[in-house]
Amino acid sequence: MADNLLEVKNLKKYFNTPRGPLHAVDDITFTIERGHTLGVVGESGCGKSTLGRTIIGLLESTQGEIRFEGLDITHPDMKRKKELCKEMQMVFQDPFSSLNPRRCVAELIAEPLKIFKVYKFAKERDERVFELMDVVGLDRRFATSYPHELDGGRRQRIGIARALAMDPKFIVCDEPVSALDVSIQAQVLNLLQDLQDERGLTYIIITHDLSVVRHISDEIMVMYLGCMVEKCDAKELFVHTLHPYTKGLLSAIPIPTVKEKKPPVLLEGELTSPINPKPVCRFANRCKYCTEQCLQSAPALEEVLPGHFVACHHVREINGL
Amino acid sequence: MSILEIKGLEVKYITHDGTVNAINGIDLEVDRGEALGLVGETGAGKTTTALSILGLVPNPPGKITAGEIFYDGRDLLKESEAEMRKIRGNDISMIFQDPMSALNPVLTVGDQIAEVIELHQKCSKKEAMERAMAMLEKVGIPAERATEYPHQFSGGMKQRVVIAIALACTPKVLLADEPTSALDVTIQAQVLDMMGKLQHEVGTAMILITHDLGVVADTCDKVAIMYAGEIVESGSLVDVYNHTAHPYTVGLFGSLPSLDKDVDRLQPIDGLMPSPMNLPEGCKFHPRCPDATPECAKRCPKVTEITPGHKVRCLKYEGTEG
Asked: How far apart are CA B48 and CA B22, in angstroms?
């Protein structure tokens, strides 16, 4: 049996708004094996960050179940919540606003160690801070610098060092590289991979950049307006793209080569509102294969090819399966 | 004939902490109707280049210390402020990076487009509004939305409005500063597609400033790669993408995860961009360059044209003119 670190079953997260419930995450089910990476892709507003935050416990789920190492962690009490912090951590999107500007680098990294009173003596703790700085490739001379003195790549390394401080098993990375320049982005991606190889970490990488997820993930999940529309092995997604939305997303990515290009399948229109959605296919208004059926019922997630799940009424006709 | 030509431009920002060498002698040429991609990382001097063309470098602290910028034979750096105001928005216009903050929140989008037309094309308020509405239709927004305010539009729609403002007076040169970086990929594809069509229709020359080599490959004819205020490599798309010469450009391509090839590890460029206050001696890239020799730290390389139109600023290629 596969060693599943995390199991998520029918997870829902609704936000109450004056106009009705906003379905940020709607009925999402998946599992991640220990040591694997799940990439979550989608456009802004599709609920990918909310999903990450709900799993980590920053937001309370509306419905559904989250199991971590086989134990239910959907509604932990305060004590359990604190313990979970040692096991699962998060790297935040924007290294420019997620760090306290009035703390220096060493203090920032030491914060989790202080909260959990890991070390009796400050000297031991400082030693560990330097060790963590080495791990993430931050020069020790920055220990007394403040975040504003550092560039984005180094700041993101502080965020990663903080997440690693308690030796977690599982890290949710919310857009870890989107605020960085390409050459720095590559350095951070390599660091994340090295850490996974050394420590057997399990990741959820949330991003809008398909080339990044393809590079770093074992499995990819594509989200659209709170729903999972396609999920499969990372390489498989690019060979057999089945859902019309994923096809549009893939063809929209500008590719840095000067080959003869296929005319892009432009997706028309924009996201519809996630507030009080009708029980229909949420992609219907942008989909060129849309039929009567799509406007009447929401498609269920189906295993179309082995290990390849798609939520679309017409997936077989479209792809000739 | 080139519509815009930059020769030996140097821009410095003089601050309390020291002098920031933002642009250190760049040469650039754009022909009529042509699209040039200006690629570089944060702080490479891309936006400052665009601002200098429009005479919008904030002074103080910014100062253009050397160089010439020719638009249609006129040196823009010698024009008076009154002349520049006539040129801006009419002959040369700019699309700003962030559509969320580039629009005035208390004016309707129709008014904001009409403002440019009224200022530059002697016409009545009513006519300006009509033309503004026609412009909105052109960028794919129904004309009846002209009376709405920016907050009623989504990010992609706002960027379309900004593009409508920039193209309202059919400028000869369009400077687009990261026009799509704030947008989602599917919306980015729509906006780029529309910009390409309009650019051909209007016959505007475009300088597209971006950090995304993919966007350039989709929309431009020529590329210039900027690093630390210098253009390190320039040429046609084929020159730069298929016959990449400068080690920095090679590094940029190596940093990109690919959609169709399997790479175990990315090959990033080591180190960081130097601080523009404290640029290294000799070649600005040598501390990060895998091919650096002791010579590189001593002498600043000259631009070498390795094949016609393909220029590289690297000692490796000096004396190998094709």
From this structure: 7
Tell me which residues of chain B, numbers 243 to 262, contact chain A at a CB-CB cutoff of 8 Å: 251-260, 262
Rounded Cα gap, residues A184 and B80, in angstroms: 42
What class does CATH assign to A4-100+169-184+196-319? alpha beta
- The residue ranges of chain B whose pLDDT is under 50 are none
Backbone φ and ψ of B18, nearest 5°: 140, 180
The per-residue pLDDT for range A219-228, each reduced to its tens digit, is 999 999 999 9
Nearest chain A CA: its distance from B77 CA (Å): 32
Out of A186, A238, A254, closest to residue B255 by CB: A186
Q: What is the pTM of this model?
A: 0.85
Looking at the DSSP bridge assignments, the partners of residue B221 are: none
Residue spans per domain, chain A: 4-100+169-184+196-319
Which is higher by pLDDT, A104 or B17? A104
Residues 153-192 on A with a CB inside 8 Å of B are 153, 181-187, 189-190
Average pLDDT, stretch A72-86?
A: 88
**Closest chain A residue by Cα to residue B155:** A270
CA distance A60 to A76: 10
The whole-number average pLDDT for the span A26-53 is 91
